[in-house]
Amino acid sequence: MITLDQAILNRRSIRQFSNEIPSKDLIESVIDAGRLAPFAAASSSNKYVRKFIVVSRSNPVLMELAEIVKKHAQKAFEELSKQIEVVPELGVKAKTFLGRLEMTMKKGPLGIGSAPYYIVVAEPKGIPDAQMQSIAHCMQNMWLKATDLGLGFQLVSITGQMGDNPDFCKLINLPDGAYKIDGCAIGYPASEHPPKPEYPSISEITTWYL
Ligand SMILES: Cc1cc2nc3c(=O)[nH]c(=O)nc-3n(C[C@H](O)[C@H](O)[C@H](O)COP(=O)(O)O)c2cc1C
Known about the structure:
Layout: H1 4-10, H2 24-35, E1 51-56, H3 61-86, H4 88-93, H5 95-107, E2 117-124, H6 131-148, E3 152-155, H7 166-171, E4 179-187, H8 202-205
This protein binds flavin mononucleotide.
């Protein structure tokens, strides 16, 4: 086990995975870390409502999910392109996102099929609408645990757009439109970790009121 500081320092987005399949025990350890992350209490009952759906690459459901996401990206790309025709300034702001949608519609979603496991985390929609923040806490715990275990982890954030897609929800047995979801890919990294991004110094990005 590595220290918390080492896990925080070593955590990286891994986008290429080897064919080696992590054991179910390891994936369960990662889920356990997510299970223990803070959650937004959607009702006064404070009941635990987070769900994890693990889809292995050896299950045909994974490629069906990837195909649905691909189709979704195509529709979203076409709709956004139409909006940009009407409001050209939107094109500048949405350029990177549009490019990602285009890549997904052409090549399929990165992370669904490229890793041995795709995991969806789901929380029922509530008031206030804090589920995506809640899921982000869960993902971060899972990410640090995966790092601790020597596993590679990639956020698959297009999953967040699929919670209202009836075909996607049906395949993973979630009621359509009732949950906020996000996803990640997990496996062993294919190569050495990618280089670290350049971080500014603490003093550059921090304002103190002492
Ligand atoms: C909200 C959020 C969504 C992200 N979505 C994706 C994604 O869909 N696919 C991906 O490969 N990386 C995704 N990332 C990872 C970032 O690109 C990455 O964390 C950043 O480039 C820094 O690199 P590092 O994670 O290796 O430190 C996402 C990160 C955040 C915080």
